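In response to a reviewer's request, we include the raw inputs and outputs for one of the modeled complexes. The two entities were modeled together in a single run.
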Amino acid sequence: MQGKRIYLDNAASTRLDERVLEAMKPYFFDTYAVATSEFAYTQGIEAREALDVARATLARVLNASPEEFIFTSGSTESSNFALKGVALALGNKNGKHIVVSKIEDFPVLHSAQALERQGFRITYLNVDGEGFVNLDELRDSISEETILVSIQYANQEIGTIQDITSIGKICREKGTIFHTDATHAFGKVPLDVRKTPVDLITVAAHTIHGPKGIGGVYIRKGTPIVKWLDGGFQEFDFRAGLENIPGAIGFARAVELMTAKENKRLQAIRDRIIDRILTEIPDTTLNGHRYKRLPQNVNISFHYIEGESITLHLDMHGFAVSTGSACFSRSLQGSHVIYGIGGDHERAHGSIRITLGRYNTIDEAEAAINTLAEVVRELRKISPLGK
Amino acid sequence: MKFPYSETVLEHFRHPRNVGKIEDADGKSIEGSPACGDMVAVYIKVDPKTNTLLDIKFESYGCASNIATGSIITEMAKGKTLDEAKKITWKEASDALGGLPKIKAHCSVLAIEGLRSAIRNYEERRGLVKDREPTTVEVIRKRLGKVMNPISGLDLVHTNLVKDIELKDGHVRVVIDMPENHQFTPAIKEEITEKIAPLWDVREVVVVFTE
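The model returned the following structure tokens for the whole complex.
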């Protein structure tokens, strides 16, 4: 295991940008006080001001007002809050029906399942072969009792970007609250709450070279949602708990560092990887849409072989990627996303996700594909399938 | 850095022994399927005079533990008599590999079954087995003893999870003492069905979870 390790699993987490760390540092060593009101001591006021600036930055990026952006511990908390908070607010008043897509990430999917056990009715919308929700089906699924629709902006595994503007419009027509999990889309594709009718948005810092343990939720003014993390009155009384000021500062800095130019660069590498794999390696299937996908996401199934073996071989060569194989997951279940788009077991178990970040180069991508081609060839030699 | 796999497992994974197909095999088997995430094919050549394994090869669709177990059992079985080879256990293979993660037991046990099935296939071809016997509750229980409980790495029978087995006119109903919404229930359900359904006189398998 010699040589440089090349990290191609940036959807899972990213390397922190040094500039983010530099921005955070003073809030560990100098301005480490609790963010207090303007009537208390100097350090507390400085901390409060720093938090306000960070919040304003996040709000500006979304074209929202600062008081509409709440810091959380990450996307899991944000999505839990969005679903359960709205359920608490409206469940006994307007109805107990919630609509989600089948391929949501676990924070949304498992929150929905938890609410189902509490007596809510959940519609799990099908998606087509590329992962898109059918808008007519969505419209038909919303009834008088529907209190919330939660459909992700972009998929965590296959990168499919949903038409959330159209989805939001349908929700508006029907008078239903709309939440979108933008964990993987934030900073990568445009998101403007004045253009897209969305009421709640989940975002996180760890996917954009920011620190772990900080995320946020956008809450459109007036959205009915009940606080359930009780304690103090922080975050406009939406979420109790000591503010993670270094995290918030880091999150804001990370967002500032995201550029369209960088996304374009990653997209070019993405396209190169997809084109090379599909032309050079036989019996492969692209998962997701060829173009309407996140600029950093590649997901391809290699038939006749199993993903954990592929990732382990790649790791021995220094490349870190992810797979939708059952063997890789703690639940021993193949990827629900690949099943969701109509894939069979073999396609799920043989799926490999490559996700790019700021520190990846085209040379690394080329080297990864060369190695991948070799690994796939070797594993197919010993497979009983496909002969 | 610590991998969940031992050095021996990784070594066999990187350089699996006895890989491939024997075209004129005396016995062969395929265990598992892409559905359960792993599949093993085993091919054997047998010396009919001494009843020993002259050659053995395997193919694997599966994860590292599946490939490594396939590799090690071919080494362990080669040269042994059929009776000796049949007695190789998962525990022995696992020990020879320096241990396997519990959660991977179900992937690796396939290779052991593959070897036994290939031998059985040989015996059936040579007319060395008696007529097929009708399935009984005991036969089903024995098969359930090969379904792993991923929480403990032990099988369902030994971990007392099999609450009830009903058998009537080829219809099998197995009750497992686990909550339906447990993270492992879909995997366990699928594996039970795969083990029981191939029995020649079984027509339907229903798996029920308590709670």
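As requested, we also summarize the result in words. The mean pLDDT of chain B is 88. The beta strands of chain B are 27-33, 38-47, 52-61, 148-149, 154-155, 162-168, 171-176, 204-209.
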